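User: I'm putting together a small comparison set for a docking exercise, and I want a reference complex before I start. The sequence is below, and the ligand is FE2/S2 (inorganic) cluster. Could you produce the 3D structure with the ligand included, as structure tokens?
Assistant: Of course. I'll restate your input first, then give the structure tokens for the complex.
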Amino acid sequence: MIEDNKDQKNRKPAVPYDEDNYTHNIRKDNERKLDRRSFMKMMVGAAGVFAVSTLPWGAIAAKHLAAGDKRTYPKNKITALSDIPVGEAVEFAYPGEHDSALLVRLEEGTFKAYQNACTHLKCPVFWSKEEGELVCPCHHGLFDVHTGKPVAGPPKRPLPEIELAVERGTVYATGVKRYEA
Amino acid sequence: MKRSYYGVIFLSLVLLACIVFTQQVVNAFFYEQYVKVLVFAVLNILMFPLAFWIYRKERNVD
Ligand code: FES
């Protein structure tokens, strides 16, 4: 490349140039790679990436639609009442074994449970007894423990609430509440 | 030299629409509004041929 340049210096350019597209001063490799046309090409490619990225969401949505809206949930035991003092929380998984969730005992007979993957970027939300709120450690998102609604930080959607039943000294998870919106 | 920026401008708008549609798809998905998901997913997919068409039209314009 360097020798090439030297070569060019010593040679007297012909006047007028024996070309008509005025590209004689373009020497570097790939110098014309990012002209407008290839930039547009790149933008078309980006549109393609967006299109492909929505395919899985669409496919799963179609599957849900085809299956109908009657989802059934198992009734899972979460914990015994004696294992969760007032003001404390226990983690569990519901409905699948990878859907981590959090049960909080607010008062003697008041329980709240949410799927605790933060609605921002899926960090696990934990129960902060001192602050009385559900806290996401990643970007300090806060959720209202009574409603699951985000009250501070980046999250915009509420945490999905889990329906509970208390029977004979045991707390059960019976379903996941639908988002209403 | 006067050149046309229409291609780049229109493609930018298409990409903006892509971002909006993708965001809508994800939101609708988490709110379990699956019909909305499908609508926006299809819109997003349609953006690609549109972008390609704009490119074809504008690539040879100086
Ligand atoms: S992941 Fe929870 S605030 Fe960002």
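The pocket of FE2/S2 (inorganic) cluster is lined by residues A 118, 120-121, 123, 136, 138-139, 141, 153-155 (CB under 6 Å). The two ends of chain A are 63 Å apart (CA to CA).
User: Thanks, that's exactly what I needed.
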